[in-house]
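Entry:
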Amino acid sequence: MGSWLAMGFGMVVFWVLVILAVVALMRTASRRSVLYRQHPSVRPVAGSYSAIEYLDDRFARGEITEQEYVHMRDTLLGR
């Protein structure tokens, strides 16, 4: 009887993990889709950050100043 309960619990855990993975993939795809609609000149490099995402991360971590951030972003977007 215990093995049936363990199998049932394992099945529930498996499907929860599958659903969470699908939701995570959809959120990532949606976020990237919004970013590229806002900045069509920015194209992703397969399997890595886009230049704008990398620049945003550097600014958020405090590696560059606001003035440097604005200048580099404008350069990337061709402004």
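The mean pLDDT is 82.
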